[in-house]
Design a protein that fits this description.
The complex is a heterotrimer. By secondary structure, chain A is of the alpha/beta class. Chain A is 36% helix and 27% strand. Chain A has a domain of 137 residues: Rossmann fold, CATH 3.40.50.300. Chain A has a six-stranded mixed β-sheet, with helices on both faces. Chain B is mainly alpha-helical. Chain B has one domain. Chain B contains nine helices and no strands. Chain C has one domain. In chain C, helix 2 crosses helix 5. The longest helix of chain C is centred in the C-terminal third of the chain and has 44 residues. Classes of the chains: A alpha/beta, B mainly alpha, C mainly alpha. Chains A and B meet through strand 1, strand 2, strand 4, helix 2 and helix 3 of A and helix 1 and helix 4 of B.
Chain lengths: 231, 281, 233
Amino acid sequence: MIETRSLTKNFGLQRVLRGVDLAVAPGEFVALMGPNGAGKTTLLRILATLARPSFGQARVAGFPLPAGAGEVRRRLGVVSHHPLLYGDLTAEENLLFYARMYGVRQRAQRLNTVLEQVGLAARRRDLVRTFSRGMQQRLAIARAVLHEPEVMLFDEPYTGLDQDASAMLDGVLRDVAARGRTVLMTTHDLARGLALADRMVILSRGVIAHSARRGEIDPATFGQTYASVVN
Amino acid sequence: MHCRPPPAVQLRTEYKCMPNSSTDSHPAAPLPVADTDVPRPLPASPARTESWQQKAADFLRAAGAVVWKDLSAERRSKELVSAMLVFSLLVVLIFNFALELERSRATLATVVSGVLWVTFIFAGTIGLNRSLAMEKDRGSLDGLLLAPVDRSALYFGKAAGNLLFMGLVEIIILPVLSVLFNLSLINPLLLLVVLLGTLGYAAVGTLLASMAIHSRARDVMLPILLFPVAIPVLVASVKASAAILAAAGWDEIGPWINLLIGYDVIFVAIAFMVFDYIVEE
Amino acid sequence: MSKSDRNLQILNVVTALLLVAATGLVFLYAPRETSMGDVQRIFYFHVPSAWVAGLAFLVTVIAGIAYLRTHEGTWDVVASSSVEIGVVFALMNIITGAIWARPIWNTWWTWDPRLTTATITWLIYVAYLMLRAGIEDPDRRARFAAVYGIVGFVSVPITYFSIQMMRSIHPVLFGPANPLAKGSAPLTPAMLQTFLFCLFTFTVVYFCFLFNRIRLQRLNDRVEQLKAKLLSA
């Protein structure tokens, strides 16, 4: 579902991605880990069609980037650490706006469904600016699944969430993944990645340094593996 | 085929080893799933081919959604219009003291026309700047760009929203100026000129503001970019307004209206063509 | 020294010689104009400056469009180098115009269409340079500059037209007709030859400055590249 070959991205003279080869199979949940500056956000932005690669190939949902960006966007749901929500609108209005932008059919029904899914049905008429960070994140996920995307990208979704909110997010993520979607999630949190994902990929200094399936990893030593790979 | 990136950092951005993108619109076969513990994946859906009617409908739907969103948010927060309104009134006040505006009837039309348009232009700049800066600061610009809509639909929606906000302020300022100068500004022809002038200004202003917000000296960048390029709008609008207020003949008004229409058409067309390049990374 | 560097050196020398020749022609060969006197000689520098500025901005627009199509950094280097030269010559145009105007019209400035448009054009391209200066990312900077180059370039004829309309609908109450209008001031053959030679010389000067500036930018970029490699190693 997601494929990159020799994906390279330069910002002026700085090379951030140095030939990333990544493949995510349909329905797979991959946790992308790595230290700050490794290029995780840049990689995600390219896959999200928000940035162009300088060199190399990328394909999402079968369409090449950047040529097939329009088609990719239809099939993509993105949750970044910006909530991408409008504080002066209610939860409902935010979803309605995005439903219109994505050309979602049977809007009212779909809105109800996703609000139920993320547990925000009771707060639908409240202004988003009154929401806690956890609630905003849940609404952001609702927004991202509104158009029933095949592929989902999450960029550090747990940032700024407390215990309860994180637990709730776990549930929502598992639900999302269970519906057959392909998920690529970046995270700092090794434990969380291990708990949720089918495969762990470590990005370090712009290249994939390590990739292992959940079954192959010993949680106890993974921390050491990670440390040795990124240094 | 494995492609090697160039050894040294190049300044050119090249798309080497990309498949022939123009013909590649069908999805590839999904990768085989080796593991049995991976849940059944959603099938890759085929590309949609759309008629032009469908495309136009999508375009209008998206642009309309953007306008609706801006209006709804503004209705709650009222930050944009109130700032523009207060600023306009202050500008008129300053002009009053700076230029000794109690003049003879002969020059009144010219003076009022000038004050009117300077006010609109300055207030408009504030609106343009804030409308786009807010999107960028909240990061919601990405939200707009992620949607599967034509980039020009985003431009159209934003420009239409800016036009509406400027229009709203103008509708309030015109009667105020009428009272202050004892000269009726509620005149259908004048309103037409105000519409055409504001349209041109908002069209170019939205385009340039979407660049200015990324610049370091963001607040002052928009006026620097916009004012020289908007001179034709200013000249035509002021001259046409003055002629209308002085009850001059069509010979003096018509050519300016034609110029405004020409400017609007040219720059909206250019904006449609280049907006993609501004927002695509 | 590489071949292109050597060619550039030759161009520099040729340009210098042409400039000397042009100056000589202007002051020694061209006759003294009857009505305006020696100050008219500024005309030989004033109009070619405008021509070079126009050429420079045209090159910028074309290079900008080429960048948007190809994303090749070279086009952006051409565009930015050309604008710098254009801005300088546009300013020279305005200043020489003012120097000429003072003894003839007894004023440093008039709001006539050509002069006003020339000033607005200069401001547009100064804004262009300021836009470039305010954006860090090179690709974004190049794209935005290209877009503004197009917008600015298209606006210039419209601006000129609008100001001219302003004059014709409301008749000019001050200032004589523009003496720069071609055909209004009769040029003797000697003057015409001098003028054309100056035009040619200034064009060569433009290309000379342009290639030198491009070379300078390339060297600058190379230094930045090496610095980046050194720091990341």
